[in-house]
Amino acid sequence: MRKLKKLVLLGTGLIGGSFSLALKRAKCVEHVVGVGRNPDNLARALELKVIDEASSDAALAVADADLVLLSAPVGQMAVLLQQIAAYLPDDCIVSDAGSTKQDVCALYRQHLPHHLHRCVPGHPIAGSELSGAAAAQYGLYEGRRVVLTPLAESAPDAIELLKSLWHACGAQVFEMSAAEHDGIFSAVSHVPHLLAFSYMNAVLDRHDAALCFDFAATGFRDFTRIAASHPEMWRDITLANKKAILLDLKANMAQLSALIECIESHDTLGLDEKIVRASSARNQWGHRSGS
After folding, report:
1. Can you tell me the distance from the alpha carbon of 230 to that of 30, in angstroms, rounded to the nearest whole number?
2. What gap in Å lies between CA 227 and CA 256, rounded to an integer?
3. How many CB atoms lie within 10 A of CB 135?
4. Assuming Cys at both sites, which of 87, 97, 112, 244 could form a disulfide with 59, CB separation 3.0 to 4.6 Å?
5. Rounded CA separation 244/240 (Å)
6. What confidence tens digit (pLDDT) does each residue in 61-90 have?
7. Alpha-carbon distance 12 to 189, whole Å?
8. Pseudo-torsion of CA 173, 175, 180, 186, nearest 10°?
């Protein structure tokens, strides 16, 4: 595998920082530059050796890069691509860690039309409610999945190099279309976060919210953990994957309406069926995934 001389992180937080640490440990990169808007976060990244150099100038940073990873929130990617477009080396690979893919693929086409053969959109399926460079960890991607959604123009060698780098991080790499990706992750990631946010807001709207939080325990903790996630990032994801998310939210509304109807009509059989169906499926998935 080709060793990277220079990796540039456009966004120096949990995702990009963990990618850097894993590649450093695997001795797959010589020099890592972190680009960001927060001087304190960049200083912390340097202190923790997540990066070797900090910059606030994306264009300057990418001038001699081998690989650029856009690990900033999806809503910032258009500006970042505009900034680096004229300064990318011809052979530099550009990838991202965005949680939505159709919109990001469109951004590559809009802002890097002459560089598409080196663009390989991606999404590491790993994360935490924590953010910033201090949250970066060496083993974040070990045993995790990474989805690549290559463009029709993506060069095979660019795809293979990116795969090898994610493998070096301990990840399993899969390929699918951007549309397939967005549909799947609406159902299993985006909508669960929105449901957690909505549930937290419903509790906050209660007159006895403070007392509810005082007595909240394991079930509340497990269900609401992801409601502590990065607000800006999840706002951007929601708007970027609007079509798929609205379909899944409406499906969830239909399920809630059916549940309310069972409770109101004291439909014991209907209630049992809904609970057993969900419980059985969750147990089967848990045994398969070890969760």
Report:
1. 30
2. 20
3. 17
4. 87
5. 10
6. 999 999 999 999 888 999 999 999 999 999
7. 22
8. 20
Residue 76: Cβ-neighbour burial (10 angstroms; 0-12, 13-18, 19+):
middle
Summarised one tens digit per residue, pLDDT across range 144-183 is 999 999 999 999 999 999 999 999 999 999 999 999 999 9
Length of the chain as a residue count = 291
Indicate the pTM of the whole model. 0.89
Token duo for residue 67: 């690989």
Q: State the number of CA atoms in the 13 A half-sphere of 1 facing the CB.
A: 19
Beta strands in the chain (DSSP E): 4-10, 29-35, 53-55, 67-70, 93-96, 119-120, 122-125, 145-148, 172-175
Residue type, position 145, single letter = R
For 13, residues 6+ apart whose C-beta sits below 8 A from its C-beta are 36, 41, 71, 131, 132, 133, 135, 136
Q: Which two tokens stand for residue 240?
A: 């970027």
Q: How far apart are alpha carbons 169 and 158 in whole angstroms? A: 17
Query: DSSP letters along 27-52, please?
Result: T-EEEEEEE-S-HHHHHHHHHTTS-S
* 30, 7 Cβ separation under 8 angstroms: no
